Amino acid sequence: MAIRYYAPGEHGSGFVGFRVTVAFNKDYRQEYFSTTKAKVQDESDPFFRYEKIKAEMKEAEWQADSLLYQYQVFVSQNHPTTKPYRGVGVHGITCTFFKDRRGSWKAAFSVKQPSGLPKRITFLNQAFSDAWRKSVAEWGKQNEILEEDIEKVTNNPPLPDQFKHLRRHLNEEHGYDIPVEALSPVFAEQRGEIARKRALEKAEKMKLSEGLMRPPAKDMEAEMTSWFESETSNA
């Protein structure tokens, strides 16, 4: 992004005036604002000043276009330097493994901070979806992201499987020793959901609601199934 003024004799084609240039998204733009009609080549001349203002306005317009493009890339693409299996589709959030103070490997979302030290959000005391939601909220706050884009990113989380692939990549390609147990918190929510669905399926098959005037809710049926199985197993 630049404005350059060419005085008489400085441009090979004989052009006198301002040239505005910008390059982004593989796009190169330029526009010329001639001041040859000015009686003197400085701001004391109204025509010279007018063309200069036009050039500055064009630069501001293209600067806004460039910033908008950069923002859209920031909220919709991995950073170009993001390493394999770490990217989640935006700049500033990545998947990672790290060692805690006890030397144990932990999985986490890493959110880039202005200080340079990332904020790691683990899955030890929260569900995968909650950790993702907190990570996106922190990312949005640090980077002044629009609410509509925060919502869009929140609703498009990475799959827990990405941590499985990252662990394998780090162990096999970089000599890490991350144990499979480090993945357990990552998949806890998924395991719980699978167990809940299986319980609901069992409840449907057992038709525990038959004979009741008002059938119980699905979760209640699952709870009844669990109770029924425990009672019969102890009989």
Describe the protein in words.
The chain is about 45% helix and about 15% strand. With about 240 residues, it is an alpha+beta fold. It has two domains: about 1-75; about 95-185, no CATH class. A three-stranded antiparallel beta sheet has the order 1-2-3, with helices on one face. The chain has a three-stranded antiparallel beta sheet with strand order 4-5-6, with helices on one face. Strand 2 and strand 3 (about 25-35) form a beta hairpin. Helix 2 (about 130-145) packs antiparallel against helix 3 (about 145-155). It is elongated and about 95 Å long. The relative contact order is 0.07. Residues about 230-235 have low confidence and may be disordered.
In short:
By secondary structure, the protein is α+β, with helices and mostly antiparallel strands.
**Beta-strand percentage range:** 15-25%
Mean pLDDT across the residues is 89
Q: Report, as a whole number of angstroms, the end-to-end distance.
A: 80 Å
Strand order across the biggest sheet? 1-2-3
- Judged by helices, strands and strand pairing, the structural class is alpha+beta
Output the number of helix runs: 6
**SSE arrangement, N to C:** EEEHEEEHHHHH
- Catalogue the unreliable spans: 231-235
Q: What kind of oligomer do you see?
A: single chain
Total individual domains:
2
